Amino acid sequence: MFTSFSKYIEVSKPYHSIKNLIVFAPLFFTFEHELYLYLDALIIFFLFYLMSTVVYIFNDISDRNIDKLHPRKKHRPIASGTVSIVEAKIIMLSIFSLATIISYFFNYQLLIVLLLYAVINILYSLKLKEIVFIDILIISSGFILRLLAGSLVNDIYLSKWIYIMTFLLAGLLAVTKRKDAVDRNDYTSTSISRYYTKTIINYIVIIITLSIIVTYTLFTISSEIIITLDNIYVPFTLVFVLLGVGRYLHLIYNKPISYDPIEIFFNDLFMKVNFVLWVLSFYILAKI
User: Fold this and answer.
1) I need a labelling partner for 179 at 20 to 30 A (CA). Which of 30, 163, 189, 233 fits?
2) pTM (predicted TM-score)
3) Other residues' Cβ atoms within 10 Å of the Cβ of residue 266
4) Cα–Cα dist 81/249, whole Å
């Protein structure tokens, strides 16, 4: 017997769809305002949501026995059994077919990016997550592919600094999430976790955090920004980047109610307000 429709929605992890908003980044950083470009980006967002759902379901099917031992993941529909394996596979294949067909007719380049995203993440679920540091690189590459999709489809040149920052920020989110198993001394939840220690994680966090700050600074003072915007005030937006990263690390190290970056963002008012202020400050300072 089929479970309630809400459980089918839950397997797609809809609150994680915020990750796909990065497809709008090329429009944001290049100050494009044409409506058709945003409509295209909205389609890309939807297709990445579908393909990421395929990846989430595949991963939850693969990890269902391990997730049953996790205090939070055991409540997921597949791990708890409220959505059967047969149902999950039917949903996964149906969504994969839908995403593939739509992207084929919408933009062939997007289809390639989506398939590459799916293949990389399926390999991650099967084996790559067991290779130390490669797991972080794979997670970061998913964000780069989203960024690339938004750039390719709308034919927008995007600064190399944006790609580097995105890669580093995604890496920071990935490595701090590894603190979950390490802090609980539970190495059953993730195959790779046994290779990470608190010391290694702390070193990586320091390196990536400093790299994010340096990269963002270089981006704001780069000739690309100065020439494009004819403005010298954009570097002041670094304040909000420092506050955002600092707040995130504070919560991870001092108040780890959750190790999921998405849950942290949605549950913390400071981070949401700071993000809005960064967006506003970037646009306002760029137009001075």
Assistant:
1) 163
2) 0.85
3) 14
4) 34
Q: What is the pLDDT of residues 154-212, one digit of tens each?
A: 888 888 889 999 999 999 988 888 777 676 665 555 555 567 778 888 899 999 999 99
Q: Which of 227, 228, 244 is nearest to 281 (CA)?
A: 244
First CA to last CA distance, the chain: 61
Q: Which long-range contacts (CB under 8 A, 24 or more apart) does 82-89 make?
A: 82/3, 82/7, 83/3, 83/7, 83/8, 83/11, 85/61, 87/2, 87/3, 87/8, 88/11, 88/57, 88/60, 88/61, 89/61
Calpha distance 114→146 (Å, rounded): 9
Contact by Cβ (8 Å): 53, 11? yes
Q: Which has more confidence, 93 or 288? A: 93
The Cα–Cα gap between 64 and 193 comes to 17
Residues 6+ apart with CB under 8 A from 101: none
